[in-house]
Amino acid sequence: MPKLTALALNCTLKPSPQPSSTEKLAGEVLAELEKLGVATEQLRVVDYDVRPGVTADEGNGDEWPKIRGRVVAADILVFATPTWLGHLSSVAQRVLERLDAELSVSDDNGVKALTGKVAVPVVVGNEDGAHSIIAAVGQALNDVGFTLPAQGSTYWNGEAMQTTDYRMLEQTPPVVASTTMTAARNAFHLASLLHDRPYLPAV
């Protein structure tokens, strides 16, 4: 079968080249996928001028179409966001709003553009909220066509009311590493199956 591809959308609020804990954990998911032969790339959405809206192209210099093209081309989407005030980042919310446009894009058989692609939510933060964010992100991505694998997410939350970031840890906590590996392996397995046996036509 052709080589699978994975794209990580890093929805940090920090533009490059600032250090990013979200980049670190997303990169660890990609590293596990690379071990399985998947071609990977990661980009920071905040480095692009992504306009607010719910269409595929908001015009006037909107750079979402550049990102959208890479999302559509990838077999696996790693959707990574930090936690702020217990919620996903504003950048992550904007990406979900822009993906809403995919609900109106179908092929001749009524199949949505993102159907058959796999998504893996990734969350980092120094406060609680990861499970809630994963639930919200997972539902939104599923709504627009993505399929989520079993145990197909990973996260890290630091101890409450402290200032250590994930990127500052000397080593990845074993439970996080194990969860990340499982999410990546299950995503690879599911993407391989969907590549060989696509969903049935919608009409």
Automatic annotation (TrEMBL):
Q: Which Pfam families match?
A: FMN_red
- Report the superkingdom from the record: Bacteria
Concerning InterPro entries, the annotation shows: Flavoprotein-like_sf (IPR029039), FMN_Rdtase-like_dom (IPR005025)
Q: Where do the NADPH-dependent FMN reductase-like domain residues begin and end?
A: 8-146
Q: What is this protein called?
A: NAD(P)H-dependent oxidoreductase
Q: What is the lineage of its organism?
A: Bacteria, Bacillati, Actinomycetota, Actinomycetes, Micrococcales
